Amino acid sequence: MQALEHWPMDRRSRITGVFTDIDDTLTTEGAITPDALAALTALKSAGLDVMAITGRPVGWSEPFALAWPVDAIVAENGAVALVNNKKGIFRTAGGRQALSKIYQSDASTRAANLARLQAVLARIERELPDARRATDSPGRETDIAIDHSEFEHLDMAQVADVVRIMRSEGLNATVSSIHINGWLGDHDKLQGAGWIVRELLGRDLEAERDRWVYVGDSTNDQRMFEAFGNSIGVANVRRFEAQLSHLPRYITRGERGAGFAEVAAAVLAARTA
Prior knowledge:
By secondary structure, the chain is an alpha/beta fold.
């Protein structure tokens, strides 16, 4: 990981879109900080596409999709997206709503998957007494989550046990800075990024990855770190460095929201150079 100041100016100047994780990337101690919120506002004011991609549930994400200056929040590791209808892109048959919720799978598939996921969640809690479902679980529609660092604490061996059970049941499993997520389907953050660019912007992300930057902080970001030449870890990514098969290309000096604000400043400086 190179220091952010080594990010070449010519590469920065081509950036037209920003993908970002939320927890411990935009947020600090569970809340977005003023500098991170100002950075989002500055990026949107400069005309960039800005989208958050998170393992958080869609229910938890709704107020932020309404309040933050982002084009969309892709939740539950790519399964579902929230789009603020102030952009006038999506409308329901009954008229305009504040948010549009769009899914990658149909309702019958989601219902069948949910039953399977809840059975796996019950098994985890039965077999691993210290494992507890995340407090945001009521807002989840397409995945399950076990808390390892938000309000509970699991050590690395316990985290590995949760991942092992999830995968033994045929689930995808990934570890964020706070949760262990499990889900059914072939989506993840990278696939979800391509999906939302196609749905929302009508473009092919594969053809324009060099025009996007991704900012993250943990192991569930590593497919994005691998895929994007302009990938950046906020400084607290060091916490997971030993567990990452694919590191971000660059790293900020600041942690969490302060690190994200550094990235935004670097992008915007290149646009005015």
